[in-house]
Amino acid sequence: MRVPLLFLNIVLVAARRQVTYIGDQVLRISASSQKQLNLVKSLEQLEHLKLDFWKEPVRSSLPIDLRVPAKHVSTIKKFLRSNDIVYSVMIKNLQSLVDEERTSSLISELRQNGTYSFNYRSFHPLKEIYRWIKDLAAENPQLVRRMRIGKSSQGRAIHVLKFSTGHGRPAIWIDGGIHGREWIAPAVAIWMAKKITTDYGNDPSITSLLNKADIFMVIMANPDGYVYSQTKDRMWRKTMSKRPGTHCFGVDPNRNFDANFGGNGSSRVPCSETYRGPHVHSEPEVKAIVNFIKKHSNFIAFITLHSYSQRLMYPYGYTQDTPENLEELDMLAHEATEALASLYGTRYSYGRIIQLINQNSGNSIDWSYNQGIKYSYVFELRDEGQYGFMLPRSQIVPTAEETWLAIKKIMEYACNHLP
Ligand SMILES: *[C@@H]1O[C@H](CO)[C@@H](O)[C@H](O)[C@H]1NC(C)=O
Ligand SMILES: *[C@@H]1O[C@H](CO)[C@@H](O)[C@H](O)[C@H]1NC(C)=O
Ligand SMILES: [Zn+2]
Asked: How far apart are the CA of 198 and the centre of ligand 1, in A?
């Protein structure tokens, strides 16, 4: 009898350590004037409330999504009402979505047949994904190579999948999973990597593309953050690096790149969700990408996958200065979003980061653009906020299918317009 009891205790302790979101709500706030916007912005300063802006206040025409811890829900609602600020409840109890996802989504499976028997309609633990990466390379030795480009703070490998059919070709970069809680991004990358292997030799467009260029894909750019989001805190965004002098850990890797590092729209506060880190490229996950791309120097396109909001954005985030090939970037974004919408009617907005959302500094596409990679884009995948980061698994494959059409447009264009 003793052994099972002990075991039960361990399970309970482990369960208790998990961050829960019982009664937490996500509010969609519509500030209708600059004054209202400033009031909502002032909430950002109240660190003790532990508010989490899923969509930050930018300007009065854009909706704001705010996750409010249960114990402050009524205070925040009262504050909004007393200032005549309109809001609605997008998610009534975040924990119920987290529970639902846990029971339906996190599939750990015994696979008999490599990537063929992988469930593409589900989210997976990191171990499953790493096995899948290994399997994909093993099943397609002529086309796919798995390369280890670095290690995370906690010592996990960072892999890139190289799809290549020749030598000395221009290269296309795609990464997913740089923010832990945005599970849809690595799930989409997995589907796309598999799609490349099934389409090469069958589909003329991808065959022709891979006869001209290589594709380098990082499925999981921030493995530590993903694991932490799956095991401890579903809303974890940052890396997991620790530093002396603060109990907060992690850096926002998408504020850690050498692109106006430390400027507006990145925090110097270690506890902040957008903490930029102590110095440029302090995060080994960022350093791995930077070193790899610099070493190769033949990249013509850089695509990074995030969620959510349904936006396709190009540089810059840190400055109002327009990129040199603005018209081209804009035209291609238009074509890509049209292609995306053609499948299920999913509408994306597109534009420069600073114009569409906010000024931010140290993001990856500003860096890659300044490295001379002219076609640098960030996707913010589904949805528009109904589920936000809690996008149900039933949307993984449709999201991947439509996104693939847009990415193919960008890749083909880049291949046909070599520098
Ligand atoms: C694995 O899946 C592939 C593709 O469906 C199939 O051709 C192969 O026979 C399968 N192998 C086994 C051992 O089931
Ligand atoms: C930073 O933001 C402030 C306040 O919005 C603005 O006045 C300033 O011009 C910005 N600095 C740069 C370099 O863009
Ligand atoms: Zn992100």
From this structure: 13
